[in-house]
Amino acid sequence: MTEMVYGAVPVRDGEPILPKWWRTVDRWALSCVLMLFAVGMLLGLAASPPLAAKNGFDPFHYVQRQAFFGGVALIAMLLTSMMSPTVVRRLAVLGFIISFVALALLPFFGTDFGKGATRWYSLGFASLQPSEFLKPGFMVAAAWAMAASLEINGPPGRAWSFALCISIVLMLALQPDFGQACLVLFGWGVMYFVGGAPMLLLVGMAGLVVVAGTVAYSNSEHFARRIDGFLSPDVDPTTQLGYATNAIREGGLFGVGVGEGQVKWSLPDAHTDFIIAVAAEEYGLILVVCIIALYTVVVVRSLLRLVRERDPFIRLAGTGLACTFGVQAMINMGVAVRLLPAKGMTLPFVSYGGSSVIASGIAVGMLLAFTRSRPQGEISDILGRGRR
């Protein structure tokens, strides 16, 4: 009778975990993520051979590595999505602590690989970027703290999460990695807004961001150079933005043809930060629109399922993960079409990169775990009873 009234998912005693997972998971979002990974492999076949030839590797060296990292990411995503929210929270907090310590130690043990920003640990056979794994862990840890502050006599979780957020942003800015810093701050701001933050406080935070950006522009040559390049009315055709802009223009609606693109021979980051330029040149606007649609479906469906969730922790954590996932994709594509300053940010599941794709798999696995249907009344039931 309760299930008829509240529309809850029935509990089946002794049901195996795989059928239960398949019945409760968001299959549309899962399918879109799998398609994004397939698109990434397709574009990797086009974008990475020039770099492999330049570095003396086999033509499909980077494609094989991406397939390996992608396989690990998909396994991590599926296993994480089968966990309960409590288990996800515990593992995420543990992962956040480890990633936070790793991020703090980067100035002493990290490397920049000649790119001017100390963001990685060199492991010999691969590199590790702690900030990629820090993001999903921080979103869950901050959501846990915010949800705890909503309880009667609860701890000051919002203040704690804000202190952590500022600490992470400062460490990222010192690398410098302003893109990841902005993404972490955005994710925290979204969760704080959903948790009932006063609008005046959010406006004040936006003002502080503007002030911080002004200070960074005045004191960081790296930051100022990227802002100046973005604001300049003319684009240097020999820069990465110039090559990407020209490739998108040449691709048109249907593209120049598979394997016929030229931007991959000019762009050093064609397989990572500017892979959407390769997609636009060889496959045209049609593939780009399909990629945007896939990201949109994942984010929108996740948010729609979270709206009906009654657990504040799950609502906050899921919202932070979904919005961060979508905004990272938007930033990557926005940089390629010169709507945003250059950020050095990957396109989730599509760009090459072990840390990026594995961390994205873990983050989406958490999101799928939080958006699974559970035997509970939805938040609308509580609101409905309050009006009676």
From TrEMBL:
Q: Can you say what this protein is called?
A: Probable peptidoglycan glycosyltransferase FtsW
Specify the superkingdom. Bacteria
Q: How does it sit in the membrane?
A: Multi-pass membrane protein
Family that this chain belongs to: Belongs to the SEDS family. FtsW subfamily.
Q: Which organism is it from?
A: Sulfitobacter delicatus
Question: In which pathway is this protein known to take part?
Answer: Cell wall biogenesis; peptidoglycan biosynthesis
Any one Gene Ontology MF annotation carried by this entry is: peptidoglycan glycosyltransferase activity
Q: What class of enzyme is it?
A: transferase
Q: Where in the cell is it found?
A: Cell membrane
Q: Which UniProt keywords apply?
A: Cell cycle, Cell division, Cell membrane, Cell shape, Cell wall biogenesis/degradation, Glycosyltransferase, Membrane, Peptidoglycan synthesis, Transferase, Transmembrane, Transmembrane helix
Has UniProt tagged this entry with the keyword Transmembrane helix?
yes
Enzyme Commission designation? 2.4.99.28
